[in-house]
Amino acid sequence: MALQIIIGLLLLIGIIILGKKLSKHKSLFPLMPFKYNFALRRDTFVETLRLLEQRNGKLIVETGTSRDGLKNTHGDGAATIVFGKWAQRHGGKVISVDISEDSLKGSQEGLNDENLNNVVTLELSDSIAFLENFDQKIDLLYLDSYDYSLHDEEIQRKSQEHHLKEFIAVEKNLHDDTIILIDDCDLPGGGKGKVVVEHMLKKDWVIVTNAYQILMVKKSSLKN
Ligand SMILES: C[S@@+](CC[C@H](N)C(=O)[O-])C[C@H]1O[C@@H](n2cnc3c(N)ncnc32)[C@H](O)[C@@H]1O
Question: Pfam families recorded for this chain (predicted)?
Fold first, then answer.
């Protein structure tokens, strides 16, 4: 009897531990295999892609590529692969621009592994210069380039200014239904989005989701 109670208790403890682990595991299944944990970005990725589908968006532009392919879903987010998978299923295209040859090499390996070369194009360039010369209309813009620092205020300022300059450079390519997602926002010092979001809020943009990532659309697009 005592043994049965002990086994029962152990089973209960096991179930509780498993339940806690599963509640922290933020999967993007069925878009991505269940084993990948997208952590803080999962819900905003889901919301972004839901909105993109609703708006019949096709062209996704990302600044800052997935330098570790799918290996860093928890840390960097692996958005190039996630958006690539989405594009493959929805007749879309992804353009991911990065200033670093090493980052592009890692991203290319990830694209090869996932057979995404037909939908994702990688570009080697400073993102601002690239966006200044870009001539297509963008349906989803993902700002995630200049790495942010948790402690160095100078790097924080430079990262924030860089993301603002990206928005200014690309404004001509945005349309009424464009969606903008900005990464690494809920961080000390305001994160990558601090300055660009303030700037956008003074214009025709509103925040749809304010979390680790900030999701924004044009106010006028919400009237439909
Ligand atoms: C956080 S990672 C991007 C992560 C990626 N979006 C993902 O979801 O996995 C930041 C990337 O931005 C790139 N980067 C930094 N400064 C840049 C610039 N001026 N123009 C373009 N890319 C830049 C870095 O080389 C790095 O690969």
Answer: Methyltransf_24 (PF13578)
